Automatic annotation (TrEMBL):
<feature type="binding site">
    <location>
        <position position="104"/>
    </location>
    <ligand>
        <name>Zn(2+)</name>
    </ligand>
</feature>
<feature type="binding site">
    <location>
        <position position="146"/>
    </location>
    <ligand>
        <name>Zn(2+)</name>
    </ligand>
</feature>
<feature type="binding site">
    <location>
        <position position="107"/>
    </location>
    <ligand>
        <name>Zn(2+)</name>
    </ligand>
</feature>
<keyword id="KW-0678">Repressor</keyword>
<keyword id="KW-0862">Zinc</keyword>
<dbReference type="InterPro" id="IPR002481">
    <property type="entry name" value="FUR"/>
</dbReference>
<dbReference type="GO" id="GO:0045892">
    <property type="term" value="P:negative regulation of DNA-templated transcription"/>
</dbReference>
<keyword id="KW-0963">Cytoplasm</keyword>
<dbReference type="Pfam" id="PF01475">
    <property type="entry name" value="FUR"/>
</dbReference>
<protein>
    <recommendedName>
        <fullName>Ferric uptake regulation protein</fullName>
    </recommendedName>
</protein>
<dbReference type="GO" id="GO:0005829">
    <property type="term" value="C:cytosol"/>
</dbReference>
<dbReference type="GO" id="GO:1900376">
    <property type="term" value="P:regulation of secondary metabolite biosynthetic process"/>
</dbReference>
<keyword id="KW-0238">DNA-binding</keyword>
<dbReference type="GO" id="GO:0008270">
    <property type="term" value="F:zinc ion binding"/>
</dbReference>
<dbReference type="GO" id="GO:0003700">
    <property type="term" value="F:DNA-binding transcription factor activity"/>
</dbReference>
<comment type="similarity">
    <text>Belongs to the Fur family.</text>
</comment>
<comment type="subunit">
    <text>Homodimer.</text>
</comment>
Length: 162
């Protein structure tokens, strides 16, 4: 079994326990939503997830998507993130909880990179009344594809102006 499938299976087990402990129904729709998030490498918004489910032939309501996302966040399996455009997206919680997001300001592409011990650099002296749980750093710039495209456009503009 691949590492991704193991993570997804483990998440299914944890979600099933969470639903039982909170006396919530274990519906197929909830597990399909979990599966879609864990199979996606992207940060997905609720509406995009809803549309993806419909396109794949699942009959699920918007309310079910939003409510299930809330349950997944509460269960600690999914995290809400806002990547600078004001839209809430969701990412699976797996591997290192501390990571950075490289966000292209042109196309909106998001890439996750593993964090080094940034908290020690940001908080060299731990505040007495604060216990850090996790952190995420957003770094904005231009992805290599957009940078290449812009460089080609500049080169074309320079040649035309000669």
């Amino acid at each position: 079994m691949s590492e991704e499938k193991v993570k997804e299976w483990s998440a299914r087990q944890k979600f099933a326990r969470f639903l039982e402990e909170h006396k919530k129904r274990k519906t197929p729709e909830r597990f399909v939503i979990l599966e879609k998030i864990f199979s996606s490498q992207a940060h997905v918004g609720a509406e995009a997830l809803y549309n993806l489910l419909l396109a794949d032939g699942y009959r699920v309501s918007r309310a079910t998507v939003y409510n299930t996302l809330d349950l997944l966040v509460e269960a600690g399996l999914v995290r809400r993130v806002t990547l600078g455009d004001g839209m809430t997206r969701y990412e699976r919680v797996s591997g290192s909880i501390n990571h950075h997001h490289l966000i292209c300001t042109r196309c909106g592409k998001v890439k996750e990179v593993k964090a080094v011990n940034t908290v020690a650099e940001l908080l060299p002296k731990k505040p007495r009344s604060f216990e850090p749980a996790y952190y995420t750093l957003y770094i904005y710039g231009m992805c290599s594809s957009c940078a290449r495209r812009e460089q080609m456009m500049r080169a074309g503009t320079t040649e035309k102006s000669r």
